[in-house]
């Protein structure tokens, strides 16, 4: 009798033969899921890396802009203070020359009045002549003195006011730049969270968990992108 397989052995062989294509299909499906997950993670990492690099660079640029504007504001305030002190010194000089003239006037000494008038600054002389034209010694509505006339102007005072306005604008720009830099830093934190999620996702074998982490990371990336689009571009 020729040697052959028993019915039980034949059935086992047929069962194993039937299972081989199914096992190959499952393996193929698992490989396909694995490749899909890896491609998704790689794509997400690429986008996050680009966004994080841009956000970090923008935060650094805006931080530098903030420091520059605040330093500029401090410099302008110092210049404004100097101009204001110079204007105050000029006003004191005008007041002293006017007092000398007024004393000579009360003493009815025309010669001393003329000497005092020669000490007037040209700009003050304009205001003085305008004040005298109001007949201040008989007109009760006349201004108290030349420095109260609209013709009395101090160049340093106007310069101080202009510098002070520039300082206020520079200070506001510096604070705004600092806020923008902080916003970019917060966005970088969101992007770092995405990198963390993708990083821990690679430690899991189940595709479902990795898909979930990719989904959460994608949502955070979309949120970070929306926040980036709301921010101004790089400072000029």
Radius of gyration: 42 Å
Rounded average pLDDT: 83
Provide the β-strand percentage band.
Answer: under 5%
Tell me the number of strands. 0
- Poorly predicted spans: 1-27
Query: How is the main sheet built?
Result: none
| Global morphology | rod-shaped
Give the ordered list of helices and strands. HHHHH
**Number of continuous helical runs:** 5
Estimated structural class: mainly alpha
First-to-last CA distance: 97 Å
Which percent range fits the helix content?
over 70%
Which features does this protein show?
mainly alpha; 0% strand; single chain; rod-shaped; 5 helices
Topology of this protein?
Blueprint lengths: L6 H100 L3 H9 L3 H11 L22 H47 L5 H24 L6
Helix pairs in contact: 1-2, 1-4, 1-5, 4-5
Please, could you describe this protein's structure?
This protein is mostly helical and 236 residues long. The protein contains five helices and no strands. The protein has helices at 7-106, 110-118, 122-132, 155-201, 207-230. α1 packs antiparallel against α2, α1 packs antiparallel against α4 and α4 (155-201) packs antiparallel against α5. It is rod-shaped. Residues 1-27 have low confidence and may be disordered.
Quick recap of the structure?
By secondary structure, the protein is mainly alpha-helical. It has 5 helices and no strands.
